[in-house]
TrEMBL record, chain A:
Residue ranges of every copy of the FAD-binding PCMH-type domain listed in the record: 1-169
GO MF annotation, one: oxidoreductase activity
UniProt entry keywords in alphabetical sequence: FAD, Flavoprotein, Oxidoreductase
Signal peptide, first to last residue: none
PANTHER family: XANTHINE DEHYDROGENASE SUBUNIT C-RELATED (PTHR42659)
Classification lineage: unclassified sequences, metagenomes, ecological metagenomes
Species assigned in the record: freshwater metagenome
InterPro entries: CO_DH_flav_C, CO_DH_flav_C_dom_sf, Diverse_Substr_Oxidored, FAD-bd_PCMH, FAD-bd_PCMH-like_sf, FAD-bd_PCMH_sub2, Mopterin_DH_FAD-bd
Protein's recorded name: Unannotated protein
Entry-linked Pfam families: CO_deh_flav_C (PF03450), FAD_binding_5 (PF00941)
PROSITE patterns: FAD_PCMH
Automatic annotation (TrEMBL), chain B:
PANTHER family for the chain: OXIDOREDUCTASE WITH IRON-SULFUR SUBUNIT (PTHR44379:SF5)
Chain ranges passing through the membrane: none
Domain 2Fe-2S ferredoxin-type: 7-83
The protein's name in its UniProt record: Unannotated protein
Upper classification of the organism: unclassified sequences, metagenomes, ecological metagenomes
UniProt GO MF annotations: 2 iron, 2 sulfur cluster binding; metal ion binding; oxidoreductase activity
Record keywords: 2Fe-2S, Iron, Iron-sulfur, Metal-binding, Oxidoreductase
Organism of origin: freshwater metagenome
Length: 304, 161
């Protein structure tokens, strides 16, 4: 194993066939369960300083180094304040230990259709920066995932950053997840929304994306015609469109019918929460806990 | 400087450097238990679900079952054996015993490490903070209430109250 201290060393190793590893929370767990053997050649990228930074751009956008952890995302004041939907998602990942070792780059490149950060990244208009020894390109997040666990990245390309454009004035975002327990959970279904309000408090623009209801994160289409309508109308229409466009499977966590129904409910709640944030209300991260969505806490002191 | 590692690694555990010789795919848990010889850290699910294998890596909680030993080179590993100072139990250990937060004891080392990381960053936690801090640790005996009470009491002890 190479423990890389510079990006150039890491890119050279990836070009030579090494698989990048940060916290290993997908790669090592997968290998120990026989999903795929641990690659013979690994390059550790968790000590490269430039991959760990969160940078605000002059125009109010954000650049997240690929090695930024879920823990940093869920606690960073700029992210919780202005890119709240992403913070909602990172705050729901695994447990405190998962959130310390798990990174945004790893989550994006692992390409699970049930990933939590994917739907908020889609509604926030993220692009992913892929770099190799021969150059750099950016890919819109929606074009990155080509199937479950598959991406458009070439074998020699390393995800080095996720770029988020500045959110418009009077906008807000939120991610909500259906879950059966409060920790160490994978989304049964999830939905993210980004809402911009006009001066009358009606919806000026709306974007919704869904987790765990298709082979990749699914952007809900056909919502542009909703501009100018009330939040309640838009939330109802987005819920209907989400349920209609979902292509869920049945597995041990839920049936396809249950997923289709509940993803509409999650979409409605995501739109409502995003609109409240757009109107200036502070809803603590994650929305799931603040609004009692998903698994509820046991009564303190009661047997669990 | 980037480092290319072969089988020979040095792991720093509880402030002591341990040279070990292992395959690069070995997880930290198995190296701690069978090479370093510290068996306080437990293997439960081997799937990042139960938290029995929790250790601290530079002060942050990590499931050692699913973390490669080679990636811990150059970092400070803390296990439950590192909690005792001068023969005295750490307040979290003493309080777990006094509050009845230990029954079979298998989850206890992991609970101690998660609680230690929590209290380092949140010295005055709410019960919700404690629940979130311990949310990667399963206990099948106590029902958690007494573990939460022990963490609450330890927070007060460490604040000098």
């Amino acid at each position: 194993m190479l423990i890389a201290s510079t990006l150039d060393d890491a890119l050279a190793a990836v070009a030579a066939g090494a698989r990048p590893i940060a916290g290993g929370s997908d790669l090592v767990v997968g290998a120990r369960h026989g999903k795929a053997p641990l690659p013979a050649s690994l390059v550790a990228i968790d000590r490269i300083a430039e991959l760990q930074t969160v940078t605000e751009t002059a125009d109010g956008g954000l650049v997240l180094g690929a090695g930024v952890s879920h823990h940093v995302i869920e606690t960073h004041p700029v992210i919780t304040g202005h890119f709240s939907g992403l913070a909602d998602a990172s705050a729901l990942v695994g447990s405190p230990s998962t959130r310390h070792v798990g990174t945004i780059g790893g989550n994006v490149m692992n390409g699970s259709p049930a990933m939590d950060t994917g739907a908020p990244l889609v509604v926030l208009g993220a692009t992913v920066e892929l770099r190799s020894t021969t150059g750099t390109r950016t890919v819109s997040i929606g074009d990155l995932w080509t199937g479950p666990g598959r991406t458009a990245a070439a074998p020699d390309e390393l995800c080095v950053a996720v770029h988020l454009p500045a959110p418009p004035p009077r906008s807000g975002s939120a991610y909500v997840r259906l879950e059966y327990r409060r920790a160490m959970e994978i989304a049964v279904v999830g939905a993210a929304a980004a809402v911009t309000l006009d001066a009358d408090g009606d919806v000026a623009s709306i974007s919704v994306a869904l987790s765990a209801v298709a082979p990749t994160i699914l952007a809900v289409s056909g919502l542009t015609g909703l501009a100018g309508r009330s939040v309640a109308d838009v939330a109802a229409a987005a819920a209907e469109a989400a349920a209609e466009q979902a292509r869920p499977i049945s597995d041990l966590r839920a049936s396809d019918r249950y997923r289709r129904h509940t993803v509409g409910v999650m979409a409605r709640r995501a739109v409502e929460a995003a609109a409240r944030r757009a109107a200036g209300e502070t809803i603590a991260v994650p929305v799931n806990r603040a609004l009692g969505i998903g698994a509820v806490a046991a009564t303190p002191g009661a047997p669990s | 400087m980037s480092q290319s590692l072969d089988r020979d690694l040095v792991l720093t555990v509880n402030g002591i450097a341990y040279p070990v010789s292992v395959d690069h795919g070995r997880n930290l848990l198995s190296v701690l238990r069978t090479e370093v010889g510290l068996t306080g850290t437990k293997e439960g699910c081997d799937d990042c679900e139960c938290g029995a294998c929790m250790v601290l890596l530079d002060g942050q909680p990590v499931n050692s079952c699913s973390y490669l030993a080679a990636q811990a080179v150059g970092r400070e590993i803390t296990t439950v054996e590192g909690m005792v100072r001068d023969g005295e139990l750490h307040p979290i250990q003493r309080n777990l015993l006094e509050e009845g937060g230990v029954q079979c004891g298998f989850c206890t080392p992991g609970m101690i490490m998660s609680a230690t990381a929590l209290l380092a960053r949140t010295p005055d936690p709410t019960d919700e903070d404690i629940r979130i801090g311990l949310s990667g640790n399963l206990c099948r005996c106590t029902g958690y209430a007494k573990i939460i009470a022990a963490v609450r009491r330890t927070a007060a002890d460490l604040r000098g109250e």
